[in-house]
Structure formats: C-alpha cells, structure tokens
Amino acid sequence: MPSVETVERAPVDQPRRSPLLVLFLTVFIDLLGFGIVIPFLPIYAQRLNVGAASVGLLLSAYSLMQFICAPILGRISDGVGRRPVIMLGLLGSSLSYVIYGYADSFATLLISRVVHGACAATISTAMAYVADTTSEDKRAHGMGMIGAAFGLGFVLGPAIGGLLGHSSLRTPVFAAAALTFANLIFAAVALPESHRRTAQRVRLRWKLIFAPVLALPYQLARHHLSSLFWVAFLGTFAIAGFETTFALLARQNFGYYAYGVGGLLAFAGIVQAITQGYLIRKISPRTGELKLIRFGLIIFAIGMAPMAFAGSLTMLLVTLALLSLGYGFVSPSVASLISKRTGEHQQGEVLGLNQSSLALARICGPAAGGLVFQHFGAPATYVGGGLVAMLALLLANGIKQDARAF
C-alpha cells in the first residue's frame, strides 16, 4: 500500500460547518447532475444511430470503471487524504459531461461514460470520509446520509433534466457540467480534510496502488469481510434488476408511461431517502447494524416478491415502500459494519472493495433482470429478486455479531 508515516483521523482546523453536512451537499449535488443526464442517455444515443446493444454497453462501461477504480482511489485516499480524491472525482465528472455534450459518435459517448464511471468511484472515498469524522455509534447514520444524498439526487435530477431537456437534449448535459464544476468550487472552499498526514511526505508506490485491482477476485472471495461484500452484492443485484424492469412492469400491468413511472420511482426514492437520512439514525443505535441488515433484507423480499402480482395502485405503492425501506436499511448498514471492522488506515481501500462489489452487481443485475423478464415474465423476475434477498439473508445470518477490526 502507499507508504504513510503517520495519519490523523481528525483535521487540525475546526470548520464552522459540519463536515458531514458539507459532504452530504457535495454528494447530493454530484448525484443531482448524474440524475439530470442519465435518463436521456438512451434517447441521446439513438439520435446518434446507436443500437440497443450499444446502449447497454454504455451503461455497463460506467459500472465496470467503478468496479475497477473504486479500490484504487480508496487506497490513494488512504495515503494522500480524502479531499484531493473527492476534488479529482468532481473535476472528472464535470469533464465527462462536457465530452458527453459534444459527442457525435458512439466512441465519444463511450469515453464520456468511462471517464464518469472512473470518477464516480470516489463515492467510496466519501464513505471513508464519514468513517474518519464519525464515532462508531454514529457511523450508520453517517453512511445513511450518503445514501439519502443518492436518493434525493436521483429523485430530483430526472425532474430537472426533463424541464431542461424540453428544447434540446444537450441543455441538461451542459447544465450538469456547470453544476458539478460549481460543486467542485464549493467543496474546495467548504470541505475540510478528514485524514491528514502529519510527518513526512506520502510516497505513492504505483505498483501497490494498482494491486487492489489485480487482487479483486481474491479479495471478494477470501477477504475477512467477504460475507458482507456478498450481502452488498446480492442486495444491489436484486435492486438493479428491479430498476431495469420496473418501467416495463408498470406499463404492462397498469398502462403507465414515462410520467407515471417517474412519479412511482420518485415515491420510492423519497421513502429510501427518509429511511437512510432519518430512520437509520433512530433505529441503528438500538439494534446494531447486523440486526438492521437482516430485518432490511426480510422487508426487501416481502416488498419485491409480490410486486408483479399487485392488482391496484395502492398495493403497488405498498410493495414499493417495503422494497425501498428494506434496501434503505441494508445498504448503509453494510457500509457502516464494514467500516467498523476495518483498520483506521485502510478505510478507503476496503470501502472501495465494497463499492466494487456494488458496481459488479450493477453490471450483472440489469442483464439478469432483463433476461428473466423477457423470457420468463415479470412474476419470475420479481419472485427471483425476493429469493436473491433471502440468499443474502442466509449469508447475513452466518456473520458473527462481534468482530475485531483488521
């Protein structure tokens, strides 16, 4: 790993603003820009005569780069600090939007998605920042705040993008670029460092920085936290299958098109944001993360498995709420537990491995969900998603309640 002589958890400065609040705003604005752009990618690609298979490649390229780059950037942040890596991610995201806006070919679009996916891997660095600045009893709440920022960005982004894209599909893209660059300036001014070196200059050994990528298969299979990585993978695999097929389900069963689907997904996003931003803070200190993960997976399965059989809007909303509530409990609780069971100077790298497992799930989940939906129908897709959540529950039940950090 990078050679680091001494690293302190807390910054020297005493910022006027709460670092967690500033980080929340930073992640929220970043995801808002993502949400503004991503719904228009298939339409934008079609106008460049890009086929459906190539659109799938564009979407997968983003997650693939996250999978590769998350542990690399996490390890770098363990060496040089969180703030420079977050700044780099925001700068790269803004650049990717500019490339996207000027794209006139599939190759250029692919480059923009590769750049954005690599830079979006800094979310693991944001989680490491939370680990640096929160005590263990507040860790799940801090991770939940990051999840809430995600949820709100995805809820509000498409709505803003829809308004901006009324006349031109390029307008939302350049708006996202400007918003992300403004976010970079805001973070540069307001976001303090959380993980500082205090002795000699950090020496980065590039062979060891890239070692996490080469070791990914082994780490995901044999790491002492691999069970938690797989719980995260399975939960995200199931939710990604839902996200890929829900518009088809809503149209098939209820006749909803873009506006109706958008409203339902906004409802789900709000439930998830409330869960991660508020309920986690109230419940986690009493139950602990492991119990919350198990409970969340049960609620997730109860919501997803019968969704394809919902015969009324009320039933559909109930199942959506349960699914969103369950995943809202699971995702930040897994990240919090991983953080607590990781040594202080490995937070970025290990949370990067977790982010890689999530990215891998978002590569595999959409393909599996779409394939099952096409060949076996909606009931098989959603019952299958519930069974995947139950498999994750079996893994979670095998995790010990108490474990030391490595």
Question: Care to give the gist of this entry?
Answer:
This protein is an all-alpha fold and 406 residues long.
List the SSEs and their pairings.
Layout: E1 7-8, H1 19-37, H2 41-47, H3 52-80, H4 82-101, H5 106-120, H6 123-133, H7 139-164, H8 170-190, E2 196-197, H9 206-209, H10 211-214, H11 216-222, H12 226-254, H13 258-287, H14 289-304, H15 313-340, H16 347-376, H17 378-397
Antiparallel strand pairs: 1-2
Helix pairs in contact: 1-6, 1-7, 1-8, 3-4, 3-5, 3-6, 3-16, 4-5, 4-6, 4-8, 6-7, 6-16, 7-8, 7-13, 7-15, 11-12, 12-15, 12-16, 12-17, 13-14, 13-15, 14-15, 14-17, 16-17
Highlighted features:
406 residues; mainly alpha; Growth Hormone, Chain: A; two-stranded antiparallel sheet; disordered N terminus
Describe the protein.
Helices cover 78% and strands 1% of the residues. A two-stranded antiparallel ribbon has the order 1-2. It has helices at 19-37, 41-47, 52-80, 82-101, 106-120, 123-133, 139-164, 170-190, 206-209, 211-214, 216-222, 226-254, 258-287, 289-304, 313-340, 347-376, 378-397, and strands spanning 7-8, 196-197. The protein starts with 6 loop residues before the first strand and ends in a 9-residue tail after the last helix. With 406 residues, the protein is mostly helical. It has one domain (16-191, 205-397): MFS general substrate transporter like domains (Growth Hormone, Chain: A). The model is unreliable at 1-16 and 198-204 (pLDDT under 50). The radius of gyration is 20 Å and the shape is globular.
